[in-house]
Amino acid sequence: MQVVILAAGQGKRMRSDLPKVLQPLGAKPMLGHVIDVAQALDATRICVVYGHGGERVREAFANLDVHWALQQPQLGTGHAVQQAVPYLLNDGTVLVLYGDVPLLQAQTLSRLHAAAGNHSLAILSVMMDDPTGYGRIVRDSHHRVTHIVEHKDASEAERNIREVNTGIMAVPAHFLSRWLHALKNDNAQGEYYLTDIVAMAVAEGVPVVTEQPEAVWETLGVNDKLQLAALERIHQQNLAQQLMTDGVTLRDPQRIDVRGELICGRDVEIDVGCVFEGRVLLGDGVRVGAHSVLRDVEVGAATRIAPYSCLEDSHIGNGCHIGPYARLRPGTRLAEDVHVGNFVEIKNSQIDAHSKANHLAYVGDATVGKRVNIGAGTITCNYDGANKHRTIIEDDVFIGSDTQLVAPVTVGRGATLGAGTTLTKSAPADELTLSRSKQLTVPGWKRPTKNSSK
Ligand code: UD1
Ligand code: CA
Predict the structure, then answer these.
(1) Which residue lies with its CA nearest to atom 34 of ligand 1?
(2) pTM of the predicted model, to two decimals?
(3) Angle between helix 77-84 and helix 173-181 axes, rounded to 10 deg
(4) Interval 286-300: pLDDT, tens
(5) Taking Cα atoms as reference points, which of 219, 258, 221 lies closest to residue 238?
(6) Using CA atoms, how far apart are residues 421 and 431, in angstroms rounded to an integer?
(7) How many CB atoms lie within 10 A of CB 387?
(8) How far is CA 179 from CA 202, 257, 392, in A?
(9) Which atom number of ligand 1 is nearest to the Cα of residue 166?
(10) CA 168, CA 111: separation in Å to the nearest integer?
(11) Residues near 142 by Cβ (< 8 Å), separated by ≥ 6?
(12) 135 CA from centroid of ligand 1 (Å)
């Protein structure tokens, strides 16, 4: 099977500088979804017809094995497919898809492809209560398809037909190139209509068959932000259903957003309002609290992420406790049973097993050993205004609250830092180090009182 994807149209109603087919659905450009399904079908050749948005569209998929056919100017869907012909082989079946119809499922398309075989033209059609704007499938008294008429060219009687052309077709390649050659543009829009090949097939006695999608939403196209949002919801619903089928507990399948790939182990629970971006892996028994955002993270088994946590580009071990309100920034690596509590920010740091930073801390560019306790308000001063420096905290260190570690600095194994310390030189192992002015009591001191005024 060969696939032609029509993606040259302008998409004016998007009112956006981003070309229409690059508008994201689940964070992936719409055209990306269409290319994905073509690849899932094992297409021997994929040709994208592009025009509006030009090189930007091409560049977005520069690393893919697809052919690009420029259509300039855009003279209709038939003219568009014609631009792809030089890139196609003259045998097998050609499947025509639209770059702005992103939710078509592989099963539906394989059925359509099978229906065409090598000798028939197959059209994907749907019944619509309000078919306004669509091309209608016109049939004779024996219910055989005779042609497709575009809404703008249709008579009153034809406009009452509820079976519409989705635009998706499968056509044997050797017919296609010949028919496209014969297209004329003597119609209401002065365009070369791909749909006119249906009447040509009928005239030559080539069988024309129709197939229906499993679900109507598969064939919905996107012309504006409202339709884009509607399809986004359908897409998210589909992903949520798949997750639940795979055994994931979603507290509310309507309130999850997966903008990338979410891979879950057994008995994973996800509370409402979570957003998953990039590639996220959740191990067995992981629980993600409400309104957390995870991007490109790997979370080990049995780890709990409490609500409102924000995790990015991080690797979290087994049995960790994260949040609520934790922020893990890129380069965070936590070993097992690490506790990161509320308002703790960690960046580009490794924290080894059983260590804890439970409240209000900043750990940046640090290497933290095992069983370390980082007190509330502790900060690694990793940045001197020009360069970043590392802090090394060895195993079994206890850091008192409100400590500043001015990097580069090392805290030796088993050391204790007294609360409020500003550490500017390395602290020796197993000793108590503190920097604190001696406590003073002023005997007999009295608080000032307010002047009495008349
Ligand atoms: C087309 C069909 C119509 C069908 C409808 C379904 C034709 C003549 N009509 O109508 O029967 O019901 O789709 O949505 O085929 N495109 C190009 N180059 C062009 C024109 C279009 O690449 O010169 C692309 C568009 O970007 C879009 C797709 O083809 O992805 C369909 O174009 P659109 O203008 O939406 O087609 P309709 O007139 O709606
Ligand atoms: Ca359209």
Answers:
(1) 9
(2) 0.93
(3) 120
(4) 999 999 999 999 999
(5) 258
(6) 14
(7) 9
(8) 12, 44, 73
(9) 6
(10) 12
(11) none
(12) 10
Ligand 1: residue whose CA is nearest its atom 22: 8
Ligand 1 pocket by Cβ (under 6 Å):
6-9, 49, 71, 74-77, 79-80, 98-100, 134-135, 148, 150, 164-167, 193-195, 221
Indicate the burial class of 156 (C-beta count within 10 angstroms; 0-12, 13-18, 19 or more). Answer: exposed
Q: Please tell me the distance between residue 134's alpha carbon and the centre of ligand 2 in angstroms.
A: 8
Paired tokens of 131: 């078919």
pLDDT value of residue 454: 64
Pocket probe mutation, ligand 1, options 77, 95, 104, max atoms within 8 Å of Cβ:
77
Q: Residue 86 above 80 pLDDT? A: yes
Q: What distance in Å separates the CA atoms of residue 309 and residue 293, rounded to the nearest whole number?
A: 6
- Cα distance between residue 180 and residue 200, in whole Å: 10
User: CA 339, CA 309: separation in Å to the nearest integer?
Assistant: 13
| CATH 3.90.550.10 in the chain, residue ranges | 2-219
Domain 231-433: assigned CATH number: 2.160.10.10
Q: What is the CATH number of domain 2-219?
A: 3.90.550.10
- Tell me, rounded to whole angstroms, the distance of Cα 303 from its chain centroid: 24
Q: Whose CA is nearest to atom 26 of ligand 1?
A: 9
Mean pLDDT of 131-135: 96
Instruction: Point out the residues that are catalytic.
Output: 359
**In degrees rounded to 5, what are phi and psi of residue 180?**
-60, -35
Confidence of residue 311 (pLDDT cuts 50, 70, 90): very high
- Phi then psi for residue 359, to 5 deg, are -145, 135
Amino acid at site 5: I
pLDDT higher than 80, residue 453? no
Q: Using CA atoms, how far apart are residues 268 and 249, in angstroms rounded to an integer? A: 6
* Secondary structure (DSSP) of 79-120: HHHHHHGGGS-SSSEEEEEETT-TT--HHHHHHHHHHHTTT-
Report d(CA 31, CA 47) in Å as an integer. Answer: 12
pLDDT digits (tens, 9 = 90+) for 193-219: 999 999 999 999 999 999 999 999 999
- Tell me how far the alpha carbon of residue 66 lies from the centroid of ligand 2, in angstroms: 23
Residues of the chain with CATH 2.160.10.10: 231-433
326-354 pLDDT per residue, tens: 999 999 999 999 999 999 999 999 999 99
Of all protein residues, the one whose alpha carbon is nearest to atom 3 of ligand 1 is 135
- Long-range pairs for 295-301: beta carbons < 8 A, 24 or more residues apart: 295/260, 297/328, 300/336, 301/265
Distance, CA 11 to ligand 2 centroid (Å)? 9
